[in-house]
Specification:
The chain is an alpha+beta fold. It folds into two domains: about 1-55 and about 60-90 and about 105-245, no CATH class; about 255-395, no CATH class. It has 14 helices and eight strands. It has a four-stranded mixed β-sheet, with helices on both faces. A two-stranded antiparallel ribbon has the order 1-2. It has a two-stranded antiparallel ribbon with strand order 4-5. It is elongated and about 105 Å long.
């Protein structure tokens, strides 16, 4: 059920946006491996203990092979998730925290819950490893099928391995690595799920063979049951640690090509330009078939929105009532016939129109000018408007 719910969340794309979904993915993988691998190895070790291993394998039913297929899928999901997270860590991201969340408080919360998860993991691991060496029933342990010894049973090595993995992850969580590394954060629910699934499987098999008669269960069964209870606490704490960890968000700033010092105050009195305002080109040229061509750096979405607002809100100094034909979409007659100015530049209504409709960026010098002014044009004097009209009309 946990794996199914997690699969739906990942298919919905939450794995890329939600640390909680990634934590549930690690938990689901750990639980699936912990509940499928131990019984598979237990059956194989039993088959190995009898005289004809090949004959015993050939008699295994469909349930065994379905369980083996589920175990392979679980391991594949675990490997794929690790590769995806490692690849995401190599891509640059912004440094901001989620809106309304204090990065310091989030990191502290993630560190505390990670340490709590580490405590549960270590206690559960110690009980799991210790319990594996005690009798599960009056007649056998996790290491042997017979009271007097005999062929090794694979439940013992599996329990020890799950315990050692849990201890290793707990050490990383104690060191605070979960706050800095997504892989370590995912490893918390993974180790907790592995410990929980493994101990639950061993206890379930033991109870099944004793017929739920409690006085026939050995001390190992009770110790491993206590380890299972502690693993539940580790699951809860590790998931909380994933939810509390600060998540990087894209930084809202102009692209590096247009980086600039702090803008001047746009509402201060604007001096008259010492030269006529510059006319912005709508596009860069035309192809052999007469269509307009553009060779300019694209704007990221945040810069594009701010530049478009600047272009559209600047004063209109000359306008006609009619509309011109869209040169990028012949047949559409929706291009405004007007001119804007901020006192330093002049641009036709086609510039913001093509930016909005087709994503055609203004020429780079104009974009750089807009970014330098902090995306605010301030008040344009009447003298500056008159200069713009003269530049447009050639007066």
């Amino acid at each position: 059920m946990v794996a199914g719910i997690t699969g739906v969340l990942l298919l919905a794309g939450l794995g890329a946006r939600s640390a909680g979904a990634r934590g549930f993915a690690g938990l689901a993988a750990g639980l699936a491996i912990g509940t499928t691998v131990p019984p598979i190895l237990d059956v194989l070790s039993f088959a190995w203990a009898i005289d004809d291993f090949g004959h015993a394998i050939s008699r295994l039913g469909s349930n065994f092979w379905l369980l083996a297929f589920a175990a392979i899928l679980s391991i594949a999901v675990l490997v794929t998730t690790g590769i995806a997270i490692a690849g995401a860590n190599t891509r640059p991201s912004g440094s901001g925290s989620a809106p309304g969340v204090s990065a310091g408080h989030s990191a502290a919360g993630g560190r505390v819950s990670g340490a709590v998860a580490g405590v549960f993991l270590i206690l559960g691991a110690v009980l799991t490893i210790g319990g594996s060496f005690l009798n599960l029933t009056r007649h056998y342990s996790a290491w042997s099928w017979h009271e007097s010894g005999g062929p090794i049973r694979m439940l013992g090595p599996v329990l020890v391995l799950a315990g050692l993995i849990s201890i290793a992850v707990a050490v990383l969580l104690f060191a605070g690595s979960g706050v800095r590394s997504q892989l370590v954060r995912i490893a918390g629910p993974l180790a907790a799920g592995l410990l929980s699934g493994t101990t639950l499987t061993v206890v379930s098999q033991t109870m099944e063979r004793t017929g739920l008669v409690m006085n026939t269960a050995g001390p190992g069964a009770w110790v491993i049951t206590a380890a299972f209870v502690l693993s539940i606490g580790a699951i809860i704490a590790s998931l909380v640690s994933n939810l509390a960890a600060p998540q990087p968000q894209p930084a809202l700033r102009p692209p590096p090509a247009f980086a600039s010092p702090p803008p001047p105050n746009p509402f201060a009195p604007q001096p008259l330009p010492t030269h006529p305002p510059r006319m912005a080109r709508v596009y860069d040229g035309r192809s052999t078939d007469g269509r307009p061509t553009v060779d300019r750096p694209a704007l990221n979405p945040h810069t594009r929105t701010a530049v478009l607002a600047y272009l559209e809100s600047a004063p209109i100094v000359l306008a006609a009532r009619s509309l011109d034909e869209d040169e990028f979409a012949p047949g559409d007659r929706d291009v405004p016939l007007n001119f804007h100015t901020d006192g330093f530049w002049i641009w036709s209504g086609a510039v913001p129109h093509y930016l909005h409709k087709h994503g055609v960026p203004p020429e780079p010098d104009l974009v750089r000018h807009i970014v330098t002014r902090g995306f605010r044009h301030g008040e344009v004097s009447e003298a500056a408007k008159d200069l713009a009209v003269k530049a447009i009309t050639g007066g």
